[in-house]
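Field reference: sequence -> structure
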Amino acid sequence: MTRLTLPAPAKLNLMLHILGRRPDGYHELQTLFQFLDHGDELTFSRRDDGEIRLLTPLPGVDPERNLIVRAARLLQHSSGCRLGADIELIKRLPMGGGIGGGSSDAATTLLGLDRLWDLRLGEERLAELGLALGADVPVFVRGRAAFAEGVGERLTPVEPAEPWYLVLVPQVAVSTAEIFSAPELTRDSPAITVRSVLERGGRNDCQPVVEKRYPEVRNALILLNKFVSARLTGTGGCVFGAFPDQAEADKVAAQLPESLPGFVAKGSNISMLHRKLQSLS
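Structure field:
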């Protein structure tokens, strides 16, 4: 295999509770991840000279700091592989949207190059490498809806309902670091069980902070709440609502102003990346 094209799916945080701050500055949290059948697309072409080249850099992002390049170099270094890759990215997921664009790209890079370079490191090792790149990366590496604890690295596979979602994309890039360092952020939510989350749901402790600091997000929540219960995903700025079918989601999407972009996508407990990889096996 010398060329491989794979999706990098979006995710939603269906709830996000923050239990406390750890001595290392990270936060103890509980969250419920589910994937969307919508995302970026990456194409990897094998190089024999060991070079890693991102052929489609993102405006304003140093290629060497891009999570795609960092993931590729980390995989090279940890495996001792002397192969390289040209990487092309079709970017659909917004940056700073809370739907996992950068983390998903990194996970797709780890899984894609593991396959392209015939390393066969295995999901467990790739998830370990992913955690060094970001707390959300392991869930994308594993590719199954999960209840996450710790900093997001302790994953329990779950199977929530798979509705259709309307996701709105306010035109702001929310800084995760800013939200997690906000003095008004609630950091004392009591721990709950997986069962109670699946039965009763939960809230997003970051939502009040984001609404206060980003009026565009607050306005999107107000607008979507007129039709369905609207929630923030992650630290935002994307907001979403669940619908029983695509037609209902499309109907609401058609009534929203053109100044507020969005998309409709199916929720999925197995990521489309893993479905694609399985089809290639």
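Note: The longest strand covers residues 27-47.
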